[in-house]
């Protein structure tokens, strides 16, 4: 039996989307250092087998743009705050990865000289080729978008083999599994099925982007230890969304 080191990974380059809540641990809010360390370990395993890793990090553990809209906060101001929340998560994640000796770059869609690098597509590709993990923060840099859309956009831009959405549920179901205990999970779906059935696991903009660029998307459980490595080594996790075969 070949060891993990000897097996070549199924993907050369991935774009992994981590929601803000993924960093929050049991508290559901803020940043849990233990969770950061666990994520670093899993990402280190991918780098160890030669996978090039791009990360998009969300901000929902700190702030969502729509949160104070009902109290009168301007949505654009709220979204700017939400994007800054993703930068804070990115800084925490870079710190944790670097402490685990994983070479990491943090690139922001919003320029923030002296704090993070500004996102540049060619530089990002160069860093990824050099085996560095690249974290993309500040979403798309524009209000009214989500970090899911940013993940699909960056995945397409860096020509990833797959976009992986790590989330709270273990795949896409025929109904929201957190509300309907009888919901049934799909192993595979086409982009059009997700759109036609209005399956709410990702926003429409994100799904349309991956559909238009034929980018495979996999939704899987971020709390399942080893799921990422298993996926890289050919295992089946979560739900795969791709074009009709
Ligand atoms: N058809 C569905 N299949 C799976 N999850 C769904 C579905 N409809 C709604 N959801 C909900 O989508 C959530 C994941 O989306 P989202 O909140 O955007 O995640 P994240 O915060 O991880 O980006 C799940 O927690 C689940 O409750
Ligand atoms: O391109 C983007 C990405 C994110 N956001 C803002 O940043 C917040 C945090 O992102 P998201 O909700 O996608 O984070 P997640 O749910 O993944 O933690 C959003 O609510 C938006 O307010 C934005 O305005 N434009």
Automatic annotation (TrEMBL):
<dbReference type="InterPro" id="IPR015963">
    <property type="entry name" value="Uridylate_kinase_bac"/>
</dbReference>
<keyword id="KW-0547">Nucleotide-binding</keyword>
<dbReference type="GO" id="GO:0005524">
    <property type="term" value="F:ATP binding"/>
</dbReference>
<feature type="binding site">
    <location>
        <position position="173"/>
    </location>
    <ligand>
        <name>ATP</name>
    </ligand>
</feature>
<dbReference type="GO" id="GO:0033862">
    <property type="term" value="F:UMP kinase activity"/>
</dbReference>
<dbReference type="GO" id="GO:0005829">
    <property type="term" value="C:cytosol"/>
</dbReference>
<comment type="function">
    <text>Catalyzes the reversible phosphorylation of UMP to UDP.</text>
</comment>
<feature type="binding site">
    <location>
        <position position="167"/>
    </location>
    <ligand>
        <name>ATP</name>
    </ligand>
</feature>
<feature type="domain" description="Aspartate/glutamate/uridylate kinase">
    <location>
        <begin position="12"/>
        <end position="221"/>
    </location>
</feature>
<keyword id="KW-0067">ATP-binding</keyword>
<feature type="binding site">
    <location>
        <position position="60"/>
    </location>
    <ligand>
        <name>ATP</name>
    </ligand>
</feature>
<feature type="binding site">
    <location>
        <position position="64"/>
    </location>
    <ligand>
        <name>ATP</name>
    </ligand>
</feature>
<dbReference type="InterPro" id="IPR011817">
    <property type="entry name" value="Uridylate_kinase"/>
</dbReference>
<feature type="binding site">
    <location>
        <position position="79"/>
    </location>
    <ligand>
        <name>UMP</name>
    </ligand>
</feature>
<dbReference type="GO" id="GO:0044210">
    <property type="term" value="P:'de novo' CTP biosynthetic process"/>
</dbReference>
<feature type="binding site">
    <location>
        <begin position="140"/>
        <end position="147"/>
    </location>
    <ligand>
        <name>UMP</name>
    </ligand>
</feature>
<comment type="pathway">
    <text>Pyrimidine metabolism; CTP biosynthesis via de novo pathway; UDP from UMP (UMPK route): step 1/1.</text>
</comment>
<keyword id="KW-0665">Pyrimidine biosynthesis</keyword>
<keyword id="KW-0418">Kinase</keyword>
<feature type="binding site">
    <location>
        <begin position="17"/>
        <end position="20"/>
    </location>
    <ligand>
        <name>ATP</name>
    </ligand>
</feature>
<feature type="binding site">
    <location>
        <position position="176"/>
    </location>
    <ligand>
        <name>ATP</name>
    </ligand>
</feature>
<comment type="subunit">
    <text>Homohexamer.</text>
</comment>
<keyword id="KW-0963">Cytoplasm</keyword>
<dbReference type="Pfam" id="PF00696">
    <property type="entry name" value="AA_kinase"/>
</dbReference>
<protein>
    <recommendedName>
        <fullName>Uridylate kinase</fullName>
        <ecNumber>2.7.4.22</ecNumber>
    </recommendedName>
</protein>
<feature type="region of interest" description="Involved in allosteric activation by GTP">
    <location>
        <begin position="25"/>
        <end position="30"/>
    </location>
</feature>
<keyword id="KW-0808">Transferase</keyword>
<dbReference type="GO" id="GO:0006225">
    <property type="term" value="P:UDP biosynthetic process"/>
</dbReference>
<dbReference type="InterPro" id="IPR001048">
    <property type="entry name" value="Asp/Glu/Uridylate_kinase"/>
</dbReference>
<dbReference type="InterPro" id="IPR036393">
    <property type="entry name" value="AceGlu_kinase-like_sf"/>
</dbReference>
<keyword id="KW-0021">Allosteric enzyme</keyword>
<feature type="binding site">
    <location>
        <position position="59"/>
    </location>
    <ligand>
        <name>UMP</name>
    </ligand>
</feature>
<comment type="similarity">
    <text>Belongs to the UMP kinase family.</text>
</comment>
């Amino acid at each position: 039996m070949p060891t993990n080191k000897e097996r070549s990974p199924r993907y050369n380059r991935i774009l992994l989307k981590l929601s803000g809540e993924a960093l929050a641990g049991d508290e559901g809010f803020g940043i849990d250092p233990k969770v950061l360390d666990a994520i670093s370990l899993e990402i280190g395993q991918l780098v160890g087998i030669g996978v090039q890793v791009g990360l998009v990090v969300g901000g929902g553990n700190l702030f969502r743009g729509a949160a104070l809209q009902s109290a009168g906060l301007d949505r654009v101001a709220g979204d700017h705050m939400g994007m800054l929340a993703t930068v804070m998560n990115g800084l925490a994640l870079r710190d944790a990865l670097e402490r685990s000796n994983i070479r990491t770059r943090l690139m922001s869609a919003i320029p923030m000289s002296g704090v993070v690098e500004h996102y540049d597509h060619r530089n990002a590709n160069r860093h990824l080729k050099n085996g560095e993990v690249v974290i993309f923060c500040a979403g798309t840099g524009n209000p009214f978008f989500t970090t899911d859309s940013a993940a699909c956009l960056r995945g397409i831009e860096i020509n990833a083999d797959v976009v992986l959405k790590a989330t709270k549920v273990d795949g896409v179901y025929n109904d929201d599994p957190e509300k309907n205990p009888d919901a049934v999970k799909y192993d595979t779906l086409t982009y059009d099925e997700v759109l036609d059935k209005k399956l709410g696991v990702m926003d429409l903009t994100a799904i349309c982007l991956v559909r238009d660029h034929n980018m495979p998307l996999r939704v899987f459980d971020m709390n399942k230890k080893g799921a990422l490595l298993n996926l890289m080594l050919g295992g089946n996790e979560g739900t795969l969304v791709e074009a009709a075969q």
